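A reminder from the course coordinator: this example appears on the midterm review sheet, so study it carefully.

Given structure:
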């Protein structure tokens, strides 16, 4: 997580700008991906409007003791240096297997050439890597349950 004071300061600015209650509990702050460079690239895609979705394996959330995101939930996105940069609202959650991800969701992820083929190639490698780090090897990628999250950007800072 990013430094508490900078997240709290960001939340006050973002909440005021987005019409949320700045005195409400500070939303969870998190970043995309597993490297700073990829986190920065994906955050830039969110801020540009290219990225409006993300996927996480259900096993990863369970291993980390995290809940499945909920529709309407706010999140603060941090960059690769752990600085808060954007406020998003989850608009839709679906649980699907890896093979059930469709071209529309792959495009919403905003990565590579936006194709389903590119999504599958990049995410197969990613899910296998992050799950292996948690001692959870993937035996059947095609049936791996994923949390597919759609979101909207409410506020961002350079």
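Designed residues:
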């Amino acid at each position: 997580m990013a430094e508490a004071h900078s997240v709290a300061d960001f939340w006050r600015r973002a909440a005021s700008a987005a019409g949320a209650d700045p005195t409400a509990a500070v939303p969870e702050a998190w970043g995309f991906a597993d490297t700073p460079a990829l986190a920065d690239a994906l955050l830039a895609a969110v801020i540009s409007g290219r990225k409006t979705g993300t996927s996480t394996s259900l096993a990863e959330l369970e291993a980390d003791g995290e809940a499945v995101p909920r529709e309407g939930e706010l999140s603060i996105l941090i960059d690769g240096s752990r600085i808060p940069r954007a406020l998003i609202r989850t608009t839709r959650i679906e649980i699907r297997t890896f093979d059930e991800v469709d071209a529309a969701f792959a495009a919403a992820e905003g990565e590579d050439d936006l194709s389903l083929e590119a999504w599958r190639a990049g995410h197969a490698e990613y899910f296998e890597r992050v799950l292996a780090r948690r001692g959870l090897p993937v035996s059947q990628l095609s049936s791996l349950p994923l949390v597919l999250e759609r979101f909207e950007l409410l506020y961002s800072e350079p």
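The chain has five helices and five strands. The radius of gyration is 15 Å.
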